[in-house]
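Query structure, 431 tokens:
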């Protein structure tokens, strides 16, 4: 829909992060040893698997079909503009040849670093590249056992913690983050995950900024990659010293755009295709086409980004269900991406069952279910110059907003209402 109304607002100061709200849609990738278990990336925690018993996944890690060019092509075709891959998840396994641990891909049967090929492949497809780096580490010998550790119920947990010093672990993180932010070119996003300072369990405290030494860590990140966007799970104080770079609501689309101390904040919703983040073979909760598209529209309509996750299989491929979901996005974005890239919330109120996104004086009405013939939009009467469908640019008529109530045919317009006339049949388009 084309609206004559002009939206005022700042043009946006040219900064190294301006790409983010333009791009709107990214791919999250959770890949690690848990792909072999294929029953959730928290499997080691959920099933309280000891390090010895979890080792079989390390010894069998061999994603022989790993081809990040294929991942990148599928991401680009889905309309995604950036990517965030788990360089290390909570299990502590590292996808690159870190000097600071033996628990890494190069020491598995696969025998190679995965990150170099990853950054090259996604950049070649024009996507910006990011890393997820877990603050939690269930493998590091200096990481004190706590309530979310696989050994939390071990009878000697408190005794074992006497030989663990989280300060050594904080230094390990700085070393690894230095590797990640110096060895792979420009990194656009780093996602730290996550803090739980108030979660005490059996006398073992949770962890937060004092454990991670978050202020020092973020200082290092900013020094190494001045333009990087840093996720907000470091438990940093939200006062003036640490302006929040990125709020990260998870598996949840907020009702209103998040704010910090009353101020708007850059934000990104992350969601899964299937429920778990790591590859889960037997999960029955894959989202359907309509849900996939609605999540994206709902997010952009509120001014946020969507990071949609894929969990590759242990052979290093996206499985058929993931590819189908990505193709759904691709088909939709092929014709509708104009309503997503660089678009954001509208000052107009969308009728029930619809969402608005807006870019400049173009207003995009997303009909999330198909109404019978008429959509009434308050506040838009006499403000619209032209209306069309986005998928085929076919004209949409509206009723005269100045018409009086016509009791013969029951059409009541006026009061500044714009009433669109839709075809009875929904055009054959995705979602
Ligand atoms: C975290 C990870 O634990 C999860 O595996 C995935 O990587 C996701 C993107 O981020 O999810 C969380 C974060 C916080 C809590 C639970 C799951 N929490 O506070 O309980």
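Result returned for the query:
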């Amino acid at each position: 829909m084309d609206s004559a109304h002009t939206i005022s607002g700042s043009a946006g100061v040219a900064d190294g992060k301006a790409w983010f709200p333009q791009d709107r849609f990214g791919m999250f990738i959770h890949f690690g040893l848990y792909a072999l278990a294929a029953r959730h990336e928290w499997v080691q925690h959920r099933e309280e698997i000891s390090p010895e018993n979890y080792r079989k996944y390390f010894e069998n890690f061999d994603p022989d079909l790993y081809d990040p060019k294929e991942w990148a092509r599928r991401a680009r075709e889905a309309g995604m503009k950036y990517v965030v891959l788990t360089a290390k998840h909570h299990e502590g396994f590292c996808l690159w040849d870190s000097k600071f641990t033996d628990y890494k891909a190069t020491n598995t049967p696969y025998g190679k670093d995965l990150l170099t090929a990853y950054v090259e492949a996604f950049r070649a497809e024009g996507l910006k590249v990011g890393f997820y780096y877990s603050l939690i580490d269930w493998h590091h010998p200096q990481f004190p056992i706590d309530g979310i550790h696989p050994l939390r119920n071990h009878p000697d947990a408190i005794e074992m913690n006497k030989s663990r010093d989280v300060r050594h672990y904080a230094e390990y993180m700085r070393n690894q983050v230095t590797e990640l932010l110096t060895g792979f070119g420009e990194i656009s996003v780093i996602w730290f995950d996550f803090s739980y300072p108030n979660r005490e369990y059996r006398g073992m405290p949770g962890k937060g900024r004092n454990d991670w030494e978050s202020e020092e860590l973020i200082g290092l990140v900013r020094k190494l990659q001045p333009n990087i966007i840093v996720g907000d799970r470091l438990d940093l104080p939200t006062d003036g010293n640490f302006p929040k770079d990125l709020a990260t609501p998870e598996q949840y689309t907020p009702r209103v755009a998040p704010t910090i101390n009353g101020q708007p904040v850059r934000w990104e919703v992350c969601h899964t295709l299937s429920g778990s983040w790591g590859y889960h073979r037997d999960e029955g909760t894959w989202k359907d086409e309509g849900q996939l598209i609605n999540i994206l529209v709902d997010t952009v309509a509120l001014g946020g980004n969507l990071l949609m996750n894929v969990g590759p299989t242990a052979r290093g491929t996206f499985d058929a269900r993931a590819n189908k979901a990505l193709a759904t996005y691709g088909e939709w974005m092929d014709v509708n991406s104009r309503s997503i890239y660089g678009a954001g919330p509208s000052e107009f109120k969308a009728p029930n069952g619809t969402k608005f996104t807006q870019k400049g004086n173009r207003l995009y009405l997303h009909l999330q279910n198909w109404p019978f013939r008429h959509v009434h939009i308050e506040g838009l009467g006499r403000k619209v110059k032209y209306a069309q469908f986005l998928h085929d640019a076919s004209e949409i008529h509206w009723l005269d907003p100045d018409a009086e109530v016509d009791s013969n045919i029951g059409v009541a317009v006026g009061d500044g209402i714009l009433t669109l006339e839709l075809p009875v049949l929904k055009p054959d388009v995705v979602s």
